[in-house]
Design brief:
Layout (H helix, E strand, L loop, with lengths): L6 H13 L2 H11 L3 H10 L21 H6 L5 E11 L9 E8 L5 E4 L5 H4 L5 H11 L2 E6 L6 H11 L9 E4 H8 L7 H7 L10 H10 L2 H25 L10
Parallel strand pairs: 1-4, 4-5
Antiparallel strand pairs: 1-2, 2-3
Helix pairs in contact: 6-7, 10-11
Length: about 260
């Protein structure tokens, strides 16, 4: 393992780190013979400041921004609401794999991720690193994420997978959990998404037989995956409707 650079070499290394995407950062780690965690420590301990755009500060920068500069800035996130839901082979990240995920921007078509679209599905199904990366890359583009019981399952499950595969944590986003809204405001027999959707006449949440998850996860069944993904999409569609009728009870939007 190489020693941590110093002086100008450290400044240059920090610039390369800040400018690189995730794949570039991994390559930089490989070039220096260090782990991703060590590289992050090098960067945080370097004392070299970042510019507001996240790049290495190499010269003083004015804090004054003109109107033209402001209008020309490219936003890093979409100021929108998205519903988010995942399907997995088990409820614990260390005993299961990601099967699919749906991120649905409000009023738009769903963005679908399915594990059987990746090359590892055939011979290395336990390796869900690529789908985890793609889900997190899309999710980090959005400002407000709506889930149902997501604070207890979807988000911590995804975080565990991201940590396992050496991915950078999600940025701070705003999160709305309709299960929490229901717990605080609705005295009903069950706060499961299926029951709330039926009770409030918002449509029908599909029911998928447990055997389909077994067929998909262990046999790689394409038809089983088709049904799981269809179920995943419906969950996000009815969750969007539940969020719309629940927003009036929302007093604040917490950060993840």
């Amino acid at each position: 393992m190489k020693k941590q650079p110093t002086g100008k070499a450290l400044e240059e290394w920090s610039r390369r780190w800040d400018d690189a995407d995730h794949t570039g950062k991994l390559k930089l780690c490989e070039d220096y013979g260090i782990t991703y965690g060590t590289a992050r420590h090098w960067r945080s301990d370097s004392g070299i400041p970042l510019c507001p755009n996240g790049k290495t500060a190499t010269s003083p920068r004015s804090m004054r921004v003109t109107v033209d500069e402001l209008l020309a800035m490219r936003p890093t996130i979409n100021l929108d609401f998205v519903t988010f839901d995942i399907e997995t082979s088990n409820l614990k990240a260390d005993f299961s794999i990601l099967l699919s995920a749906v991120i649905k921007p409000f009023g738009q078509d769903p963005i679908v991720f399915r594990a059987d679209d990746y090359p590892t599905w055939e011979n290395d199904r336990a390796n869900d690193g690529a789908i985890t990366r793609d889900i997190s890359d899309e999710l980090r583009k959005h400002a407000i994420v709506v889930t149902h019981y997501g604070d207890r399952f979807d988000t911590p499950y995804l975080r565990a997978k991201m940590m396992k595969h050496g991915l950078e944590p999600l940025p701070q986003m705003f999160g709305i959990d309709t299960w929490k809204i229901a717990r605080a405001n609705f005295q009903v027999s069950s706060r499961r998404l299926k029951n709330l959707v039926r009770y409030f006449d918002l449509g029908e949440k599909g029911q998928v037989d447990g055997g389909l998850w077994m067929d998909a996860a262990y046999n790689g069944g394409r038809e089983a995956m088709d049904e799981i993904v269809a179920h995943n999409i419906v969950d996000c569609e009815v969750l969007e409707k539940l969020a719309c009728v629940s927003f009036r009870y929302l007093r604040s939007i917490p950060k993840y």
